[in-house]
């Protein structure tokens, strides 16, 4: 499988080099003297204004009657001199920094920008969750094994991990408009390749191209929202964005279950292509550059380190759920990933032009909320990963019934996300996070009590309450941290935050699945010690059961005993798996408790303009 990971990274590198070459070629045609001439004009204008103010003061002082209006006139002129001198001094002496555009500049076009961004994000996230239910059908249709088909998810995740850290560079290089067009185009082209694929290799290629676009969309969406909305309105805006982030993954299994039951798995890719084309039209017509387009230098070494570090780290954690934590593949992958990340951090902190500005973590509230978001992400994946296993593999519910169980929770979160955003604007993230995490801890603990008799309605109620609690967490905590960052660091902050959450989600998924697997084996061994032929009571009961099954089925006595053993073994595995899932939810509860404790330390972030 190592050839796959090398192939994905190679494709990503080639794609980036091509884009970078095209941009550099265009930039060479620009006249570098333009900026110097503009600076000279500004200085000349400032000096002219100062001279005019000097004349105003001189004329006034020479006047025979220095009346009260004259004094005001002198003060006004003096203020003008001071303001222009300071402006001129700052223009000459201060370190160059990106000009921050006021959010009010985009007030008229916000609705159109939001529509173009939200459609792309919703479709990208929806498509990612549609595929999970279709995995068995793809295995049968393309004649591939489970270990091979899981690369459709792992490869997607790896490509996301490679592209997310360079989002800040791409935003500065291309601007938000071109980058949205690029990401939606890549996603749509990838969907088309997946739809017409005749073999696994072609399908895998389409998934990688999809991920190249989808990985950029979410950090880009957050950067745009934080730029076009002032701090006092960001809560409601990010709550609206939460609808796409949470509602799409929740309705994905339901929609996918229905489509798979009536059509081919290729329809899952067909349905997103028209939406991708529509979003391209909207982006071309409505999208604007909301950040300053510059010409940053591409940090090739930093990109290589991040691709190796994140790629191997995510691969190691994804394989841990299949091969175990002690396998050579997992240990080597994790070791290479950790070394790559250490080199990436060193590179970004020592280079003059970092690809990802890691100094955003010196802002205390941003650093804390990023950690809390990572922990919440890990806990959230418990229900999203473990519940379908319990419902479909243990209880025998269909994929559609499993998806329908999660739908009400998605609706509740979709309704509550904008409301929690407005509450955030009034009271900040801490009370909302504490309230939401208390509900999350209680409901996650309730999932540790699952049995074969737990009713469908009870599970649905718990899931709805859990999603209600989660609706107060995801976007509010993240927004509080982003509000502390200056506008020119927003793209770096969103890239760093999304990278951390992606890694945490991968770690959480692999860790909880591994906990479920190992604890299932532990419980199976315990039952094996109890249900033994050396136990006379158990042996007698087994013999009675065998005779009963033989008489009912009309089988020989020996065949009845074998059937009884198979029935008992099946029940043991069933109950052991339930116990393993319950144990994984216990761990998820502990993770949620950690987030709850950290939430008490969240402070209200001040607007960047007010910070020294």
Question: What is the fold's blueprint, element by element?
Answer:
Elements: H1 2-27, H2 33-61, H3 68-93, H4 110-142, H5 146-149, H6 151-163, H7 167-196, H8 200-228, H9 234-262, H10 267-270, H11 272-286, H12 300-323, H13 328-350, H14 364-394, H15 399-427, H16 429-446, H17 456-470, H18 474-482, H19 490-530, H20 536-553, H21 557-599
Helix pairs in contact: 1-6, 2-3, 4-8, 4-9, 4-11, 6-8, 6-12, 7-8, 7-11, 7-19, 8-9, 8-19, 9-15, 9-18, 12-13, 12-19, 14-18, 14-19, 14-21, 15-16, 15-17, 16-17, 16-18, 16-21, 19-21, 20-21
Describe the structure.
There is one protein chain. The protein starts with a helix and ends in a 13-residue tail after the last helix. It is mainly alpha-helical. It folds into four domains: 35-93; 109-296, MFS general substrate transporter like domains (Growth Hormone, Chain: A); 299-354; 360-531 and 585-607, Growth Hormone, Chain: A. The model is unreliable at 1-24, 26-40 and 56-100 (pLDDT under 50). It is built from 21 helices and no strands. The radius of gyration is 30 Å and the shape is globular. Helix 9 packs across helix 18 and helix 19 (490-530) packs antiparallel against helix 21 (557-599). It is 80% helix and 0% strand.
List keywords for this structure.
Growth Hormone, Chain: A, single chain, 0% strand, globular, 612 residues, disordered N terminus, 4 domains
List the helices and strands in order. HHHHHHHHHHHHHHHHHHHHH
Global Rg:
30 Å
Oligomer type: single chain
What number is the mean pLDDT?
Answer: 74
CATH class of the largest domain: Mainly Alpha
Derived structural class: mainly alpha
Low-confidence stretches: 1-24, 26-40, 56-100
Query: In what range is the share of β-strand residues?
Result: under 5%
CATH fold label of the largest domain:
Growth Hormone, Chain: A
CATH superfamily descriptor of the largest domain: MFS general substrate transporter like domains
Shape: globular
Helix content: over 70%
**What is the CATH architecture term of the largest domain?**
Up-down Bundle
Strand runs, count: 0
What number of structural domains do the residues give? Answer: 4
Kindly report how far apart the N and C termini lie: 51 Å
Describe the largest sheet: none
**What is the count of helical runs?**
21
């Amino acid at each position: 499988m190592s050839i796959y990971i090398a192939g994905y990274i190679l494709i990503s590198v080639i794609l980036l080099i091509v884009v970078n070459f095209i941009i550099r070629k265009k930039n060479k045609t620009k006249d570098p003297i333009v900026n110097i001439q503009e600076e000279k004009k500004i200085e000349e204008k400032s000096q002219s204004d100062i001279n005019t103010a000097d004349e105003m003061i001189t004329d006034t002082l020479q006047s025979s009657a220095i009346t009260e209006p004259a004094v005001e006139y002198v003060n006004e002129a003096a203020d003008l001199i001071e303001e222009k001198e300071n402006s001129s001094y700052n223009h000459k002496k201060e370190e160059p920094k990106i000009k921050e555009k006021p959010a009010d500049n985009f007030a008229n076009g916000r609705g159109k920008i939001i529509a173009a961004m939200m459609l792309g994000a919703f479709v990208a996230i929806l498509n990612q969750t549609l595929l999970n239910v279709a995995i068995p059908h793809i295995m049968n249709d393309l004649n591939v094994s489970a270990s091979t088909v899981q690369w459709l998810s792992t490869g997607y995740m790896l490509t996301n991990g490679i592209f997310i850290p360079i989002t800040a560079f791409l935003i500065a290089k291309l601007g938000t408009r071109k980058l949205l067009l690029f990401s939606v185009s890549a996603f749509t082209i990838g969907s088309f390749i997946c739809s017409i694929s005749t073999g696994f290799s072609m399908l895998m290629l389409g998934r990688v191209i999809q991920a190249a676009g989808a990985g950029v969309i979410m950090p880009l969406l957050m950067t745009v929202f934080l730029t076009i909305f002032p701090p006092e309105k960001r809560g409601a805006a990010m709550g609206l964005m939460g609808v796409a982030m949470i509602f799409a993954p929740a309705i994905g299994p339901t929609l996918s279950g229905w489509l798979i039951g009536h059509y081919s798995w290729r329809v899952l890719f067909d349905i997103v292509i028209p939406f991708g084309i529509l979003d391209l039209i909207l982006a071309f017509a409505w999208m604007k550059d909301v950040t300053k387009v510059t010409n940053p230098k591409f940090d090739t070494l930093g990109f290589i380190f991040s691709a190796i570090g994140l790629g191997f780290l995510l691969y190691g954690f994804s394989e841990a759920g299949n091969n175990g934590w002690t396998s050579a593949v997992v240990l080597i992958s994790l070791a290479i990933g950790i070394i790559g990340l250490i080199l990436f951090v060193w590179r970004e902190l020592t280079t003059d032009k970092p690809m990802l500005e890691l100094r955003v973590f010196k802002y205390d509230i941003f650093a804390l909320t990023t950690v809390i978001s990572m922990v919440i992400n890990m806990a959230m994946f418990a229900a999203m990963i473990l519940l379908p296993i319990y419902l479909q593999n243990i209880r025998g519910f269909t994929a559609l019934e499993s998806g329908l169980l999660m739908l009400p929770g998605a609706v509740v979160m979709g309704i509550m996300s904008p409301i929690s955003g407005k509450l955030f604007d009034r009271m900040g993230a801490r009370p909302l996070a504490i309230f939401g995490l208390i509900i999350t801890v209680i409901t996650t603990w309730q999932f540790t009590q699952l049995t074969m008799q737990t009713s469908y309605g009870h599970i649905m109620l718990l899931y709805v309450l859990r999603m209600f609690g989660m609706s107060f967490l995801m976007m509010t905590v993240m927004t509080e941290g982003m509000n502390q960052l200056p506008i020119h660091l927003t793209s770096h902050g969103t890239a760093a935050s999304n990278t951390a959450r992606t890694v945490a989600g991968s770690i959480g998924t692999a860790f909880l699945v591994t906990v479920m697997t190992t604890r299932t084996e532990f419980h199976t061994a315990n039952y094996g010690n109890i249900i033994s032929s050396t136990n006379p009571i158990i042996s007698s009961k087994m013999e009675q059961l065998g005779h009963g099954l033989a008489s009912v089925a009309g089988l020989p006595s020996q065949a009845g005993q074998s059937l009884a053993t198979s029935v008992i073994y099946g029940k043991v595995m069933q109950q052991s798996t339930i116990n393993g899932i319950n144990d994984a939810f216990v761990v998820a509860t502990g993770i949620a408790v950690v987030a709850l404790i950290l939430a008490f330390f969240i402070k209200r972030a001040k607007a960047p303009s007010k910070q020294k």
